[in-house]
Amino acid sequence: MQNLYLATIFAGALICLLASLLLFSRRKDGERSRTILACIILFSVSNYITRFIALCNGEVPELVVSVRMLLLAIFMVISYIMYPIEVISPGWLNFKRIVKLYLPLLALLGIYLITTWTGVKYTSYESLLEMLPHAGHFDVWFRLVLCLFIFMPVLFIFFIPYTRRYNNTDRVWIRKYVITLSINCLVYILMLAFDKSAIIRIIYYYVSVGCSLFIAYMELFVRLIGKSVATEKEEEEENEMAVETTEPSLLYDESVVKTRNEILIENLDAYMKRTCAWRNPDLSLNALAFALCTNRTTLTQAIQENGYVNYTVYINRLRINDFVHQIESNQSINIQEAFFDAGFRSRTTALRHFRQITGMTPSEYLIRINETKKPSKSTD
């Protein structure tokens, strides 16, 4: 069992190290969330390695219910809160706010140092269950308070000031992150309660590494990093100016022959070709109707008369066509980035619509493209 425990710690350290390096290598200019997450996971690696070296040298690692280990756990949980703060409200974090974020931890550390200096002795216990009979002692209930503080930072995520500065995430992503972090904290508390069991320790490392990998996966493949709203507003202003400069006389002459919806469809197609508005993941039916100087009911009817079930089907068709064009013209070799550039916010949503429209996955589509290109190359 000891060998399995050592192998689990080493494997966890190696996997987290690779995940951290991958996050750092895939960081984007001006976007700090991946760098922050990479540093947090890398710090976890240092904790794993320290414990692994101690066990290999025959030393007894510091007990998990010691004050220093509990303070370290609170530090890690608060650090994991910094990442969603940067995701939800980019640029909100600065030095002063980071210090405020860690103030509760600094206060608890100050209490520990003062009590140690005044002569309070912290008895060594191996688990929370072993501590409970002595809950009346200061050194015990102080550690029980520290255990409660491990969960409190998770609740802070729901009070992060949400901003639309970037199209970075949605409520579904926030819920997934909170659930993942809560599972990690809950399993850690179980390990504190039953630390004498090697099986519990092994399970904790598996769950902890799994949660870190899932968070890294969501960052790399689920959460698509968007453009700033300032940039989108500039594009919308340019689009509105372009619409205003359109000569009304031309539209009036053509309206004699064509119906109102036919003219609207032509204006819609021209507007889409000129602005590529579908690439904005927040483009709504109301915003598009406003840009075309009409209302959502009329625009919906025109889209339906043009052969589409509704506005969503129409926009997703344009996004898939854009994605296919990028891949076929070699403008993008990364499927995820191509989906984002085409206007999809979620990789899962993009894959679902791609299958509905093409009847295959992007990988299968790429294989078919490569097969069709081979004969032309041989004839040349």
Using only CA atoms, what is the Rg?
28 Å
Number of individual domains: 2
Helix count, per DSSP?
A: 18
**Overall average residue pLDDT:** 79
* Biggest sheet descriptor: none
Helix/strand order, N-terminal first: HHHHHHHHHHHHHHHHHH
First and last CA, distance = 63 Å
Proportion in helices: over 70%
- Structural class based on helices, strands and sheet pairing: mainly alpha
- For this structure, what is the CATH class of the largest domain? Mainly Alpha
Strand percentage lies at under 5%
Assign an overall shape.
elongated
What does this entry look like structurally?
This protein has helices at residues 2-25, 33-56, 67-88, 95-101, 103-117, 128-131, 138-155, 171-193, 198-222, 229-244, 248-255, 260-275, 285-291, 296-305, 311-328, 335-341, 347-358, 362-379. The chain is elongated, with a radius of gyration of 28 Å. It is an all-alpha fold and 380 residues long.
